[in-house]
Structure formats: C-alpha cells, structure tokens
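Extended Data, panel c. Modelled sequence:
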Amino acid sequence: MQLIDLHADTLTALYYRSGEKLKDQEFLRELPVANLAQNNCAIDLAKLRQADSLAQFFVLWLNLHACELHKVSPWDLFMKQYQQLRQQIDTFNSQISLVSNVAELVAARAQNKLAGFVCVEEGAFISSLEQLDVAYHLGVRYITLVWNYETHIGVPSAIDQQRGLKPFGFEMVAAMQELGMLVDVSHLSDQGVRDVLQIAKKPIIASHSNVRALCNHTRNLSDELIRGIAQNGGVIGVNCVPYFLDEQDKTIRIQRMVEHLEYIYRLAGEDVLAIGNDFDGFGSLTPELDEIKTIADLPLVADALIKAGFSSRQVDKIFNKNALRILTTIN
C-alpha cells in the first residue's frame, strides 16, 4: 500500500546525537550528525522504501524561543534548514527527488525515486507576503500556521482555544491559497481553525492531528472541526504520537491508531482520512513496547485497517489517494 506521510521532523532530528541531553542541538551544531540515507531516526531512505513511500513531507521545524535564545531569526533558521534539506537531497539524488507538485511526484516515481516535499512548521518565519512568495518559489508547499507559541499569525491550541487568527494570519491564509500552498491547521486553536475554514476557498489540511473525543488533548480535533475540515474538502493526517492516541496508555498501539481513523470515518466519511505521523517529532515513553517504531511499520496499520473492516479501496484512500487529491490543488 503506497504511503504519503504528511508530516515528519526528520531534518531537525539529523542534528541530534542519540543519548545526548543537549537541548537545541540544531543550533549548537553547524552540520548534522547523521544523513537522510540511513540513520537511527524513524525515517530514512531505506525505511521509506520499506514503507512503499509515494511521497514524504519533510518539515522544517522552527522553535521560536530557541531562535530568540540563540539570536537567530526564524527566517535565517528556515533558510539554514532549507539548504540542509537541499544538500541531503542532492547528495542522494539517485534515490530521492525534491518535488513541488503531483506531476513532479509522478516523474520521480517513474525513475524509481522517492519523492520529498518541503514544508514548514511555524508560520512566524513569515513577516511579509513578499517572504511568503520567496518561500513558495523555493518549493515550500505547506505551512503549519503556528506551533506552540502565540505569534503575529495566531494563537495555538496549547495557549487559548478561544482566540484565533490575527489580522496578518487572515492575510497569510488568503495569500497561501492564492499562491497554491496548503494551509495546515494542526497546532492552531479551535477558533483559529474556524477562522481558516470561514475564509478558505480551497481544501486545507490538519497534517498531524487526532480525535479529541478519544483522547482529550488540546492538539486533537473536536467533532465540529473534523466535520468542518471534511466539508471543506480537506484531509486530516492521523498520527501515532502516544499522548495524542490515548490519555492513559502511553505505548503506541496500532489498534488505537485504527480507532482514531474509524472514528473520523464514521463522523465525516472516508475522503478526509490521511496519515501524518509526526515521526522524529516526539519521544517514545515505552520504545521497547511500541508497535509502531518507524515508518517501515506503517504497512502493519494498513493490515489492521483491513482486519477492522475497511476495504482495500478505502485503505488506499487513507494511505495516498486523499492526499493526492489535495496535492492537485497546489501549483
């Protein structure tokens, strides 16, 4: 079952040496300690092959507080990480291509290459629509509007669910959709998601969000927002982050991920379902017990969905077809 995974923090994780307790290692090292081809992270090129990857979205994650601490502007950190991604892709260009649309994805597949999209988690690196235009022309194809800090764009769910987009946030969402860049509402407050849905003229995504009714975490989506994203024609990338799957059991269990997918399906239909695991963006609490350890384990989720009663056609939509439909809306 070919996989499009909508969210992974692997590029940041390449800067981190396993076992070290140093915080902000991506700021403390000029060069990564591992490479994209083969590493100890949840994603590398070998594991993507094992997962039958059709496309991987690589996130450039920007920690605003760390930027301030290390006196690095968010834009400069974006450019550093972008260049690092380009260097990794160029180094292993016989195996993977950086793509920006479906046509380029198909071309990469025809050459038996993996396909990678570039996206950014934390929209505050954009302070003007001119910068947004530059990011688009560099190949950025989605931006997660906020992370866990309040910014000039909007308010995250971690801070206040009642306040949403700010004036520049409204401008940025409209401009992103005009350019042909996906708007990602994961991490955004409930009101912020409502704000985006109110003005969105094209489908949006929640790249890595689960169901609040099954796990009462602010990062998960309410039934109202799940329905809203479905009605918008968007997709929700269900993930295997243990504290977004279950409030009690912190082991990553395949059945629990299936239950989140089943819930969304019953509530809002099959067209809104996708995968966005957030690999290399969270720490496991029970690594020896986890049933999903790397992206190579995702075929097990497909098998579990079939056993749960989903058809092969539906699993195909969850794993790639719904995401492919969304990708046809970008340029």
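The chain is about 40% helix and 15% strand. This feature is highlighted in the accompanying rendering.
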